[in-house]
Amino acid sequence: MTTLDARPSTDALVVAHSPGAPDGEWWRDAVIYQVYPRSFADGSGDGIGDLPGITSRLDHLAELGVDAVWLSPFYRSPQADAGYDVSDYRDVDPLFGTLDDFDAMLARAHGLGLRVIVDLVPNHTSDEHAWFVEALAAGPGSPARERYLFREGRGEDGQEPPNNWQSIFGGPAWTRLPDGQWYLHLFDSRQPDLNWEHPEVRAEFEDVLRFWLDRGVDGFRIDVAHGMVKAPGLPDWDGHVSMIEGSEQAFEEAEHALHEHASGAAERVDEVTGSGNQGPMFDQEGVHDIYRAWHRVLAEYDGDRALVAEAWVEPLSRLARYVRPDEMHQAFNFAFLATLWHAPSLRDVITASYLASDSVGAPTTWVLSNHDVVRHASRLGLATPGSRPNGIGADDEQPDEELGLRRARCATLLMLGLPGSAYLYQGEELGLPDHTTLPADVRQDPAFFRTQGAELGRDGCRVPLPWSAQEPGFGFSPTGEAWLPQPSTWARYAADAQRGVPGSTYETYRTALRVRRAEALGSGGLTWLPSRDDVLDLVNRDVRVVANLGTEPVELPAGTRVLLASGPLDAAADGTLLIGSDTTVWVRP
Ligand code: GLC
């Protein structure tokens, strides 16, 4: 048993981040909820979620207490990558509704006080986009081909791809056309990469930004924000191309480095947060010009519109360059998401995150789950908790569901106790795990097909939400249909089974968001208190956040009042409260 120090001496405190003004721009401390439209709520009954479905459930989000919603793509698309293959950036796909449905959704959200961010996919279009269709018809050497990255092949008769790049979804990043030319696609062959050196491409996307800004959106999440500009000459690269998995080793190395050095994380941001070399297709200097131009477009509009970067860039000092004052406003902090369930590593990545983002005056942007990774309730139930398999299937190690949920709640309360902005992925407020036994014949992720099943892909985290325990399809759709099957055990996670139930995951999230807002934690500061190695102990404004990742309980100091706990607290014989294993508490000192 360990007793927390009620009043540690000031020498022992480590200030990682100082508080800001509580009334800064909205995105600095916002909690933003990711809606994955095809799996949130289905209004039409076809088993695929849609905009009217979202509108009908926005009150759930207002009641939960988030500040904003980010919608994954709902634009016209053949859905080769679930909508991240856009064929018309200015229209809604009939699967999801119409532009009028979008306007109605936006009006309802704004009426409820929720801001709305939409997804912009500028690295590539769909192969059904008018420009690509035109480029194919126009043939080699035509101006229409200049908007994409068409090249002649290497070797005899150009039979070899122009370089050795691999697609992030598996297989070569080049596809050859019957006319002999090859085109580049960092993702699926149905997602040709645009040529961002082309002025028409730049002009078009500024216009698309304006189209949605004029409709009233509050910002954009920029897909593959680190990928649009490629190194001149598209040189070969022998490294491993990945956005979604693979940095576990980097973190093990970082952890090793941590034990080698006795100094604070401040000088070690780069060691703590990865190696940085992602090859000639990512994180090129030229992307920053694009974001400076977009920053100016958004600045023409009122209301603090914001850009958030999806940039899988290491180390964090490189990521910070995307959020310099004249570029984007936020960038997802994937280094935090990628950290194993290990208190010293988490402490260091958190400190390093502030150091990096404070160096450019930007907020950190915490995230634990999204539509591309195994949900944190499942990741944290694995034998190596926090590792990131590329999907989980029936033949794989199955996560411990109860332990995973306990840790997920612990991780979430740690995250929501930190200053900065935070992103929640739909369903995490219900404690949802991944579907970890999806059969091959229902899988839809192109990564599954391009790797012949070697990578299971991301379908497990995209299963339609359970709203009502008793209804067919758990109330996702009026017909009970769902585009991916839901596990039969999900009744216990349904929103209506948790609403009003003290201690449920949903009510815990709600209370956390209420306290976070009331105490202005999002714009607060972070001071580390000395603690056992497996305990994170910090103060943010008037709230002390203690996360016990160890196996031994921690005793709360006398005189503190518990505001919130991620799980039940036991009491010692003398009545002192104990923070058990994998539990976070928020207390008022
Ligand atoms: C981003 C999206 C992912 C998509 C990829 C290609 O990483 O989050 O879902 O497959 O970009 O657009």
Proportion in helices: 25-40%
Hey, roughly how much beta strand do the residues contain? 5-15%
Number of H- or I-type helical stretches: 16
- CATH T-level fold name of the largest domain: TIM Barrel
The CATH superfamily of the largest domain turns out to be: Glycosidases
Q: Which descriptor suits the 3D outline?
A: globular
Radius of gyration: 24 Å
What does this structure look like?
With 589 residues, the chain is of the alpha/beta class. The protein folds into 3 domains: 70 residues, Immunoglobulin-like (Sandwich), CATH 2.60.40.1180; 348 residues, TIM Barrel; 55 residues, Oligo-1,6-glucosidase, domain 2 (Alpha-Beta Complex), CATH 3.90.400. The chain is 26% helix and 15% strand. The protein contains 16 helices and 23 strands. The strands form 5 sheets. The chain has an 8-stranded parallel sheet with strand order 13-12-11-7-4-3-15-14. Strands 2-16-17-18-23-20 form a 6-stranded antiparallel sheet. A hairpin with a 2-residue loop joins strand 17 and strand 18. Helix 13 runs parallel beside helix 16. The site of alpha-D-glucopyranose has 10 residues, from loops.
Sequence-ordered SSE layout with sheet pairings:
Elements: E1 2-3, E2 14-17, E3 31-35, H1 37-40, H2 51-64, E4 68-71, E5 75-76, E6 88-92, H3 99-111, E7 115-120, H4 130-138, E8 150-151, E9 174-176, E10 182-184, H5 199-215, E11 219-222, H6 248-260, H7 269-272, H8 287-299, E12 306-309, H9 316-319, E13 330-331, H10 334-337, H11 343-358, E14 365-367, H12 376-379, H13 401-416, E15 421-425, H14 446-450, H15 495-498, H16 505-518, E16 526-528, E17 535-540, E18 543-548, E19 554-555, E20 561-565, E21 570-571, E22 577-579, E23 583-588
Parallel strand pairs: 1-19, 3-4, 3-15, 4-7, 7-11, 11-12, 12-13, 14-15
Antiparallel strand pairs: 2-16, 5-6, 8-10, 9-10, 16-17, 17-18, 18-23, 19-22, 20-23, 21-22
Helix pairs in contact: 2-3, 5-8, 13-16
The structure holds alpha-D-glucopyranose.
Alpha-D-glucopyranose binds at residues 81, 84, 121, 187, 223-224, 243, 310, 371-372.
Pfam family, one: Alpha-amylase
Family: Belongs to the glycosyl hydrolase 13 family.
Keywords: Glycoprotein
